Amino acid sequence: MTRVSELELENLFIERLEQIGYEYVDLHTYQDVLDNFRVQLAKLNAKKLIEAKGEASFSDSEFERVMNHVDKKSVYESAKILRDQWVLTLDNEKTVYLSFFDSIWDNNTFQVAHQITMDPAHRNDVVYKNRYDVTVLLNGLPVVQIELKRNGVDINEAINQINRYRSYSFKGLFHFLQLFVVSNSALTKYFCNENETVNGVPNNILKSLVFFWTDEHNKRINRLEEFTATFFQRAALVEMISKFMVIKTTEPVLMVMRPYQIFAVKAAMKRVIVENKNGYVFACTGSGKTLTSFKLAQLLRDQPRIDKVIFLIDRKDLDDQTVDEYNSFEADSVDGSTSTAVLVKQLKQADRKLIVTTIQKMATAVRSERYRDLMESYRDKKVVFIIDECHRSQFGKMHRDIDRTFRNANYIGFTGTPIFEENRGSARQTTADIFSAGDKLPACLHKYMIKDAIADGNVLRFSVEFENSIKITDVAAPGVDPEKLDDPQYCAEHDIDISPLYHAPQRIEKVAEHIFAHHDQHAIQGADTYTSLFAVDSIETLGKYYDVFKALNEQRPEEKRFRLAAIFSYADNEDAPDNPAMYLDPQADTSEGDQQLAPVQKENAQMLLQRIMNDYNQEFNTAYGLDSFDAYRKDISKRMKQKELPQIDILLVVNMMLTGFDARTLNTLYLDKNLVWHSLVQAYSRTNRVDKPTKQFGQIISYRNIKKAQDDALRLFSGDGDPNCIVLESYPEYLERWVRNVAHVRLVAPTADMALNLQAEDDIREFIVNFRALAGTLATLKTFSQFDWHDLSVAMDEEEFEVYKSAYLYFYDQTRVQDDKKKAPVPVDVDFEIELVRTDRINVMYILGLLKEAKSSKKTAEERERDIDLVKREIERSDNAALRAKKDIIVGFLENVFYELPEDANISEAYEEYEKQVLQHELEAFAQENGLKPEDVQHVFTEHNFRGELSDEDIRKALEPYHLGLLKVIKLIKALKEFVKQESLRFQAEGE
């Protein structure tokens, strides 16, 4: 069957748009776009213009004033202009309020244009000439750009193409583009425009912000024809732009909602405005409930019939985050009430229609005699309560008091983990009971479960490793299987309590050692270092682990130490121990060979927390105490959400941060506690926020056997779906995938050298796609605790992979070239996902630059030592291959040369000279050890670097003058090859 060409696809798409009411307009150049805009803007504002000047048109000078207002504005500024009215002074000195867009859909003019060309001849800020596929215009302004590829071509290439257009040719009125659509006919996605630069740095659209379109049941609409029939309906497009996009006010960001968010808002609006009933939205954790609830609150607030919209949050640690996010969407839209008195003051303000507060404060207000009169005044007012994390038990307990006061209220809940019959525990009511809409209407307004979010790429899957931390080979009790003693259900059925084993000092030490041994594998991905949580079962356990962690950390070289922190709510009944806990002093004397830490003092939770805070203050140069706990919590939250130093590497918690805490920079959860149902899903979901391609999943390392509890919970909260769709495959399965990926790479390029010599565009494209998949599999394998290159070498070893990677990077670099001097016909829009393979943010030049700064005469001795400490940390954190290979050389340079250099020394030259000395010393040492001349070893080394590899025959010829026996020659050939390979990796110049 003959494929439809891109041009044919464009024409078919335009025909479909014309059928649903779009007018085709023949625009070729930017001047054509300007001329059309002038006509259409006058048409939209015809009534005002006729009243003010007698005709619906602009004079040249009037249109010039319009262009002065709209031209040379950023995407963000243009989005605001599109939605605002603007006062135009006419030539007759009268004024009119011009609209650029009308939220009543049929007041707008809808047009479609084909292959508009932007070039430097028509705008001097256009860098390269580009011709666009299909452009949708509203009132003459380009608002949607559609880029189409022929069937079978990866639509990511269309995304890359749009990113190029954004950088080089989307100028002037094309800054009004709100949305992009990309399709290859069989697969279609949409996404939002953004400023093309942020602080002068190119700001490409992230693949994670490119969305599928679906129906209200989350069924994906892939084909362009079906997508067009729903997404491009004229009323739907205007509704999308007017209601379901957000212009953040705290940063220049434009956002578009995803289908499930839109359907949830629509369903909730209908439930309140039309049906006057309650309901809840089941939207999985991490799917953007805050944005959804904000849009719902904003739209409800703007309804004249509604007196107040009150957003209720269950816990203080969620309060600040929600208020900050709401205010980022719309400046000063909410003022988080810090006390019941502040809440009451806000309730008295008639012009404050949106309030964010905690359910505890609202419950206090309605129970208080002091506020009775105020609360009575709300008895019959139309109030809508939006409840975040509405699965929490506190809401069920306090709901009755609030409901008795606000008799005319509606309640809309949001939760990723509803309370069902299966997981309600001691709770009397399910979420459906609390948000009941009567017998005729379902309580659940819309579902978007974790399986849907993973399928859409809106959250990540989980990689779960269960580490057996209790091994018992024999038990005295008859009929008890020692192999099942780590299974909580088995122990419960047989009335076995093994909790003392979980808290034994020897086990705690072994778990801590395992975490420390493998933490870098989990945390360092690509050029980024992610943060992690370690959740334990009690404050007492946390104290024991914290002390062991500290002791282990102090045994490590200073540059390899982890930044540790801990937090818990010591006043909270669910966290606090019944009695003062026994804690262990890591400094206590122990008998030789004793692996246990000696108990030396009793310490209650407050004492422990203050001690932890003291360590934190010393680590991060802060000054927190028990009286500033909230500030301490906020500082921890901030450091957990950043990848730059100084961040927290491992945060120990009991229950805090396991719900409501969202951070893309967190990717690992260590568990030494039993979790079930919603608490398990909530905790797991701290790790699976989408970030860069290198973050492919959230990692769970559990030291308890909660496999059955995990499967039950994931099945329940995915609508009885297969939990294996949510959890990553095992290490052996990824090894099999590695073998398959290697085979695909070798089909295109049997050797790495052949990859570098690929010439045909289709071959290069296929190599890039296959190697990208291989690199993704490797990135996944490296996160498993049992990762070992030896397991992978059956198909491809590390050295060969690095050579293939150099070909991949070579082709990537060719796409950066913007002239005709390319050495290879690389498809310019191919999707590389370079983050999977390039890890040179912390490279040799970067380290030398830090050393140069440290040598500055303006630095104090203390600052210089701090800089050196940073350098050592950066070296350890980097997984850049060249830097890793040179690590011992750089450390040697620091210890033996750096401190003796004058302040004005050229650090790079000094380091290069030191490298030469080290190389020469090692060549001479190898020569002496093996009875060879240094110049002969140097010759083999140089030849290897020049050719890329040396055969056994080449080395044998170099050894002929020594007249050695056969066995000796074979041994030396092997030793020389290994030595030269190792030294070449260590001493190659950066970038080779």
Reconstruct the topology from this structure:
Elements: H1 6-19, E1 23-24, H2 30-44, H3 46-53, H4 60-70, H5 75-83, E2 85-89, E3 95-99, E4 110-114, E5 117-118, E6 130-131, E7 134-138, E8 141-148, H6 156-168, E9 179-183, E10 188-192, E11 197-198, E12 201-202, E13 210-211, E14 213-214, E15 220-221, H7 224-231, H8 234-243, E16 245-247, E17 254-256, H9 259-274, E18 279-283, H10 289-301, E19 308-313, H11 316-329, H12 340-348, E20 354-358, H13 359-367, H14 372-377, E21 383-388, H15 393-405, E22 410-415, H16 431-434, E23 444-448, H17 450-456, E24 461-466, H18 488-493, H19 499-502, H20 505-523, E25 524-525, E26 528-529, E27 531-536, H21 539-555, E28 564-566, E29 581-584, E30 599-603, H22 605-620, H23 629-640, E31 650-653, E32 666-672, H24 677-684, E33 697-702, H25 707-716, H26 731-748, H27 752-756, H28 761-781, H29 789-792, H30 798-816, H31 844-854, H32 861-877, H33 881-896, H34 907-929, H35 934-947, H36 952-959, H37 966-987
